[in-house]
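task queued by scheduler; priority normal; single chain, no ligands, no partner chains; default sampling; output format set to structure tokens
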Amino acid sequence: MFKILIVEDEPKMLQGLKENLEYERYETDMAEDGEIGLQKIKENAYDLVLLDVMLPKMSGFDVCKQARAAGINYPIIMLTATGEEIDKVLGLELGADDYITKPFSLRELLARIKAILRRSQNLLQKAGEVKIGRLNINFSTYSAHEEGRPVAVTHKEYEVLKYLWQHKNEVVSRDDLLAEIWNMDDSITTRTVDNFILHLRQKLEYHAAHPRHILTVHGTGYKYID
């Protein structure tokens, strides 16, 4: 059974999400402010987190950022009431895997959850540990190490890297990545893809400014080379 943490301060929304997720046979846990949410994220194992942006004590953006900095890599879906593109992009660049704008339909939310959990399970099943640049990456456990020291890599970064690794020596366009990783969400731009590539290079390349593994194919996209 998948376990989902709901971090939401509005009582009716929190209870409604809990009841509907449990009806779908998910196990749930709850937190009503950002500080408690972050504490639970650090101390427990979840399969996915639903994280509101506007929270007491600590914003959802800060929770997401600190969770990723602490090496927490399971999927995070952010719930935002604003619908502003800059908020969505910021959340994704801080390490969120998806977002959904309030008010949202339950059917859409459940579809997003199922899609992300399905990709997570596929990623776990398809690859073990590989050496990429400075890092030993284990796609089965979502873990990365450099000379035995853990390195924080977000779930979405794992997905991007795994896709490039599966298509090694092939040119992968930005549109390919948008379609496969972000489901061609029209609010996500190629600049978002470029930022994820930049973050990956900083973590795995010996010289990020002169990459040897994730190369830019100008005007098209990227190519992964062993």
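post-processing summary
- The mean pLDDT is 86.
- Residues 106-126 form the longest helix (21 residues).
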